[in-house]
From TrEMBL:
Protein name: Benzene 1,2-dioxygenase subunit alpha
Organism encoding this protein: Sporosarcina pasteurii
EC number of the protein: 1.14.12.3
Residue spans crossing the bilayer: none
EC category: oxidoreductase
Amino acid sequence: MAYNKVINATQRTFERTMTYDMYTDPKVLEKEMDLIFSKSWQLVGHVSQVEKAGAFFTADVMGEPIIVIRGTDEVLRAFYNVCPHRATKLEKNEAGKKKILQCMYHGWTFKTDGSLNRAPNFRGEDAACVQDACLRPVRMEVLESLIFVNLDDNATPLAESYGDFFDQLSKFEFLSELKRTHRKTRIIKANWKAFIDNYLECDHCHIAHPSFIDTLDMKDYQITMCENYSIQGTVVKPDKQYGEVDLNEAEMQGGTFFWLWPNLMLTIYPGPGNMASIEMIPIDHETTLAVYTYYFREDSLEKLSQEEKDLMTFAEEVRAEDIELVELEQIGFRSRAFNKGRYASSEQAIVQFHEMVLEALDE
Ligand code: FES
Ligand SMILES: [Fe+2]
């Protein structure tokens, strides 16, 4: 991708957006699946989910069943969650702890390193034909406690894929203390890109998010485009700071909102150490599964402090406001009234995103 470090917004000369069929045509989504999603890093989990030997979780990465498991040798690995005998999905549970994985169909068993343990229906001379039948590994990398998977075996390493993003993230020192606290999903009746567009500008914040602009100092709101990601945010208004909570400096600095190509957003709100990830996963060209995961110092909702609960409520309120907007936008994308929109000069992060989509699709 052509984005190096910070992009100068004035270099952008786009005035009209990409055509609306990009949001309504099922063939576009087919191409995106092929050329974008099956080649990009996808967040699947957090190391707090797989701390102990044998701990695993399963995930669906763009239709591919995946299992991430910490081996009895303590090494974290990811595999396609598919039996090498005859394709059956191997582990059905979402999470758990096992020393041996067993296929329900003919009872093949696998060690936590993916090697075949036993194939009970292959005996005698059959045994030779299954010697090398192990689980197929999938590219996995962990940075800042976040576990990413890439379906492309030849993908650029994660750390090199997003410029200096992980350096930026590591400045939030509390992140290493966070656990995966809660995950929730929601179906949005809009194309996946509509929500990314919505996230990449804050002009609508003044109109749509009263609580957001009440808390954050919008005079200092900035959006910076970087290599395959962008960062936006501002500081908290002085009178809205969390005075009574014992917070370190990083936690006080304000709202920071990252977008990572293509469909991941990471948000850090002012207040007690926190992060949320939002993944926009296309179900079809006009339906998207939004996956929201919250990370706090506690591993369950029940243990959260009032400040942490308030923060979640705040984030969810803002999100619901956005969902309503993108669902209304999708109705207009389908209309014959217009076939393109316009970019304001404050919407350059959307231009960056759209250019990357068009480049990936070779449009
Ligand atoms: S399909 Fe898994 S053991 Fe046969
Ligand atoms: Fe918004």
